[in-house]
Each structure stands twice: as structure tokens, then as C-alpha cells.
Design brief:
about 350 residues; alpha+beta; eight-stranded antiparallel sheet; six-stranded antiparallel sheet
Length: about 350
């Protein structure tokens, strides 16, 4: 449930990055970090626990005068909330992670499956690892390719070398005018503001700055500068993209006076249920119409088994769905963790339907 935000533009990055992290607090996390670049200097602060701890560290940190100036004046940066996968919750494992030279800083959602193999190769080449994360491998791999290639090419070669899932945002002291972001299996979007751009894993993080976004597709890479951007594929080909407009407002993501988001969601349940069924009830027939099923209605008549794949709270929703579907449709249902299902070889045939939540 990690959160990513990156900023480049006309305004000071640190307040925007911190605000973005706060707006993703509902996602759950165990540590947080922020890196801000001013000219060719990068200052990083991290903390374990709540974002408030990071905010207090920012306000009370013992940075020298030059570091404080860079941190306060920088107009490009990255921030992240981490949920520990590789390595315990700690400052050394919190993101952003960096390379040996301290030039390349990276925030990452997802899992790099071949990181141990890559790590061994990089250690043999002299790279020094400071964390227990799989993410750090990406920073060192970019550093290795960056010895002979430019930043963009180094990132492309890295992404074509790693296996797994990622939402990434990367900055490089050597090219301090850009952020490179990439997606494969982990949500990422680009917010388009007035002479500023925000990369984030959640629309909630950018809604105060802009409501115009591009949702990156799997295998797409965004190269973002102060006044321009381009989106390419892993094969370095330009890709088509559409600008979307977010139609919800800040109050949709605020706690609105509740002590925490869970309490807010509990009290929102009656409205949530009403919103879910609005426009879908056929009162005179005492029935409901679920859009999207008409095109496959003839196929559904032959279904003998349903598999629901999901994770987290949607897995619990799937379990409720299992009870309901078996009771009302009289069809056997299995509920699987999506994170495990992708590695299995399940028995699927033309009479099985898979519902992915």
C-alpha cells in the first residue's frame, strides 16, 4: 500500500511533497521519506512511523545552512510512504533509496523478483549496498549503466533488466532538470499543472495542484522536465496518451472532522451503499441491473465455476461474494489471493469465469 509522489515545477517542492504524502496516509505505511534537489545537491530525510514524525524531523532537523537552503528552495523532489516487504521498517530501508555515489535517488512501489541475482552481480562490480530492500538494486543498476549511457538510456536498460512489478520515480544529480517515472503492474499517474508536473501513485496526492492527469499504462515511461514531458515505451518508442480530468474534489479525501479515515469510512457506509445502487435498481420489477454483463450474457449461462481474485480488503469482499454467489446463483466459487494466483497454473476452461477485483 505504499505511496509515491514526485514534483518538478515553478514552486518549492518540499511542501507539495509533504502534503501529497499526508493525502495518501489512508493507504497504510510504516515509514516515510523525502528527497529534494536544488541545482545539483540532494537532501534526504527519513523517519519510521507516522508522517508527523517526518514532518517534525523536517522542522527540527540539524541540517547545515547549505542543506537547509537546498531543502527549502528545491523545486524538484520525491517522497514516499513505505510498507515493509524486503527489510524491517527502518530509516535505512525507507525510500528514497540511492546509489553508491549519491547521484541517483529512487522511490518504488512493487516487487523486484530477480533483485538477489542482480545484487550479486553489482556487488562483484564494486557496488556497496546500504539497505535490505529490493528497490536499492534499481538505483545501483541505473548507476552502472549511467557510466556509459545518459540518464534516460540507463533507466531504459535497467527496466529491461529487472523482473517484477514497479511504479517508479527517479531523479539524478547529473541531470537535475528532470524526473523519470515508469510503471509496470503498479499504478502511476502524471498530473499536469501550470508550469509544474506531479507524478503520483494516487490521484489524492495531486488533487490540490491539478485535476488533469495522464494514467500511465504498463510498460510506459514518462520523462518529465520543467516545461515539457514525453511518454515512451520500454522499446523507446513514443506512445499515445489521453489527458483525463478528475471530477472529484478535495473534500472527498479529507477526514472531515473524524479522528481517522477508518472512522470516516464507517460513518460513510450508508451513503456508500446508496451510491453503489443508485441508478441500478429497477423498482417496479424488484430487481437490479448490473451494467457490463449484457455483452457476455450468453456466455454466463454456461458457467460452472467462478474464481474471484483479489488482495487486502477486496479479498474480504470476495469472500462475501463467494457466500452470496453460491447461495443465489448456485455456482461453486473460489476466492484466491491475486499475489499468489499469478504464480499458479490454475485449471481454467471455457466454463470458468475469473472475476478480478
Amino acid at each position: 500500500m505504499c505511496g509515491i509522489i514526485g514534483y518538478i515545477g515553478k514552486n518549492k517542492a518540499q511542501p507539495i511533497l509533504l502534503d501529497g504524502l499526508k493525502r495518501m496516509e489512508y493507504r497504510g505505511y510504516d515509514s516515510a521519506g523525502i528527497s529534494v534537489m536544488h541545482k545539483d545537491k540532494i537532501v534526504t530525510l527519513k523517519s519510521v512511523g507516522k508522517i508527523l514524525n517526518l514532518e517534525n524531523k523536517i522542522n527540527n532537523s540539524r541540517l547545515n545552512s547549505h542543506q537547509k537552503l537546498n531543502f527549502q528552495q528545491g523545486k524538484i523532489g520525491l517522497a514516499h510512504t513505505r510498507w515493509a516487504t524486503h527489510g524491517e521498517p527502518s530509516e535505512k530501508n525507507a525510500h528514497p533509496q540511492k546509489d553508491c555515489s549519491g547521484n541517483i535517488f529512487i522511490v518504488h512501489n512493487g516487487i523486484i523478483e530477480n533483485y538477489q541475482e542482480l545484487k550479486k552481480q553489482l556487488i562483484k562490480k564494486g557496488h556497496l549496498f546500504r539497505s535490505d530492500t529490493d528497490t536499492e538494486v534499481i538505483a545501483h543498476l541505473i548507476e552502472e549503466f549511467n557510466k556509459k549511457e545518459n540518464f534516460k538510456t540507463a533507466v531504459l536498460k535497467t527496466l529491461n533488466s529487472i523482473k517484477g512489478t514497479y511504479g517508479l520515480a527517479i531523479i539524478n544529480k547529473k541531470e537535475p532538470d528532470k524526473i523519470i517515472a515508469a510503471r509496470l503492474g503498479s499504478p502511476l499517474l502524471l498530473g499536469l499543472g501550470d508550469k509544474e508536473y506531479i507524478i503520483a501513485s494516487d490521484p489524492a496526492a495531486i488533487i490540490r495542484q491539478t485535476n488533469k492527469v495522464i494514467y500511465l499504462k504498463d510498460g510506459e515511461i514518462a520523462i518529465i522536465k520543467n516545461n515539457d514531458y514525453e511518454i515512451i515505451s520500454l522499446k523507446n518508442k513514443f506512445t499515445q496518451h489521453k489527458i483525463h480530468q478528475i471530477d472529484w474534489t478535495e473534500d472527498k479525501i479529507e477526514k472531515q472532522g473524524y479522528d481517522h479515515f477508518m472512522l470516516k469510512e464507517i460513518f460513510e457506509q450508508p451513503k456508500t451503499i446508496k451510491d453503489a445502487i443508485r441508478g441500478r435498481l429497477i423498482v417496479k420489477d424488484g430487481n437490479a441491473k448490473l451494467g457490463g454483463l449484457e455483452n457476455v450474457a450468453h456466455q454466463l449461462k454456461t458457467i460452472e465455476k467462478i474464481i474471484i481474485i483479489s488482495c487486502g480488503t477486496s479479498y474480504y469482499a470476495g469472500l462475501v461474494g463467494e457466500y452470496m454467489l453460491e447461495e443465489y446463483a448456485d455456482i461453486p466459487v473460489e476466492v484466491e489471493y491475486a499475489s499468489e494466483f499469478r504464480y499458479r497454473k490454475p485449471i481454467l476452461d471455457s466454463r470458468t469465469i475469473v472475476l478480478a477485483i
